[in-house]
Specification:
single chain; alpha/beta; two-stranded antiparallel ribbon; 10 strands; 39% helix; globular
Length: 174
């Protein structure tokens, strides 16, 4: 799936053509977008209805978590890292993959979040970040800290997992 956004200018170059460019900016870098702008990008893609529906549902889940953390309305929520091109690609890519694989069920054991701190557009935050904690509270799976001092579960990853997976306690689902 390819999409372009003529506003996507980062690190002094745009990302609207096929020419490779040096990339020295961090993952999650890119334009800040609103919830509605992210949905508009997904709607402009040539996606099957089921794929677009899952991607939109994941973005809504992510948006509701961000809105809760920032005490804003969903439509007033500004997506920083989670509105970046790579986050949108992760959400749409996961939706496409699941449509292609068509699994009967997806399960996950408790998810390792990592620990320590991570840098965000709002400053340094503890790991797991507040948005990950909010997403997990609404999910069917649980979190556990560690095993390293690094961010192992991003809000985007947590939103995807919350949308698609049932939690289980062990390696063999019931």
């Amino acid at each position: 799936v390819r999409y372009t956004d003529d506003r996507a200018v980062t690190a002094g170059h745009d990302h609207t053509d096929d020419e490779p460019k040096p990339h020295d900016h961090a993952e999650g870098a890119g334009p800040t977008r609103t919830y509605e702008e992210v949905l508009e990008i997904i709607d402009r893609m040539d996606l099957a209805a089921a794929v677009a529906g899952r991607a939109r549902a994941t973005v809504e889940r992510l948006g509701r978590a961000e809105a809760a953390v920032h005490d804003t309305d969903l439509t007033a929520t500004i997506f920083h890292e989670v509105g970046a091109d790579d986050a949108i690609a992760d959400i749409v890519g996961a939706s496409l993959l699941l449509a292609d694989l068509d699994p009967e069920r997806l399960v996950t054991t408790p998810v390792a979040t990592g620990g320590g701190q991570t840098k965000t557009d709002h400053g340094r935050y503890p790991v797991p970040t507040p948005a990950v904690v909010e997403l997990a509270a609404d999910a069917d799976w649980s979190l556990w800290g560690g095993p390293v001092d690094a961010e192992l579960l991003t809000p985007t990853g947590a939103a995807i997992l919350a949308e698609i997976a049932d939690g289980v306690d062990g390696a063999t689902p019931e």
